[in-house]
Automatic annotation (TrEMBL):
Protein name (Swiss-Prot/TrEMBL): Crp/Fnr family transcriptional regulator
Matches recorded under CDD domains: CAP_ED (cd00038)
Domain Cyclic nucleotide-binding: start-end pairs: 30-114
InterPro entries the UniProt entry points to: cNMP-bd_dom (IPR000595), cNMP-bd_dom_sf (IPR018490), RmlC-like_jellyroll (IPR014710)
Pfam families according to UniProt: cNMP_binding
Cited SUPFAM superfamilies: cAMP-binding domain-like
Signal peptide segment: none
Length: 191
């Protein structure tokens, strides 16, 4: 839980009383490799912090899986489009390796906002970061060619790229695995 508390502390100051409240509101769980934290059609009911592990977000587009995001240790996981309005999700969130998480329900998150001195600031700053990430990713999807998307992937995920299967990276970039091999070869000869 210390990694969770330290992460929250990067957004807001915490008192000892705040830390005790956090310890009561968050619950630890282990998700095994290939298990889903969320499936499309179900309502996302928890905000999740990854203590250890790796997950991917994906959806089905024309019958094919399309990976569109990854989260690792020290990051937050949630389908906010489902979580906030409490409607069925359109995405899947899957563990790519055994993953230890800390979860908080929607109702407990409201308690967090009310009882933690700067709780609402934490929520605002977190959502602002999600918004920036989504805008950046959407811009890349529409404007960047696959080679540049792969280059941006390696910059954004340099520390976990070796932990992600190549076919998920290809899906994220928007190409078939064979095309990703050509892109990787072409990029390696440029340096």
């Amino acid at each position: 839980m210390e990694l969770l508390i330290e992460n929250i502390r990067t957004y807001i100051p915490l008192s000892a009383a705040d830390e005790n409240i956090i310890r009561e509101l968050f619950h630890k769980k282990v998700i095994h490799k290939d298990e889903h934290l969320l499936e499309a059609g179900h309502v996302c009911r928890r905000l999740i912090f990854i203590e250890k592990g790796l997950v991917r977000y994906y959806l089905f587009n024309n019958g094919e899986e399309q990976t569109h995001y990854f989260n690792k240790e020290g990051e937050w996981v949630c389908d906010y489009q489902s979580f906030l309005p409490k409607v069925p999700a359109t995405v899947y969130i899957q563990a790519l390796e055994d993953t230890t998480i800390w979860t908080i329900s929607y109702d407990d998150l409201q308690t967090f906002y009310q009882e933690i001195k700067y709780g609402e600031r934490f929520g605002r700053l977190g959502i602002e970061q999600v918004f920036i990430d989504i805008i950046r990713q959407m811009g890349s999807l529409y404007a960047d060619k696959p080679g540049l998307r792969y280059e941006k992937f390696t910059q954004a995920y340099f520390d976990i790229a070796q932990r992600i299967p190549q076919y998920y990276i290809a899906s994220y970039v928007g190409v078939k695995p064979q095309s990703l091999s050509r892109i990787r070869k072409r990029n390696s000869t440029q340096f």
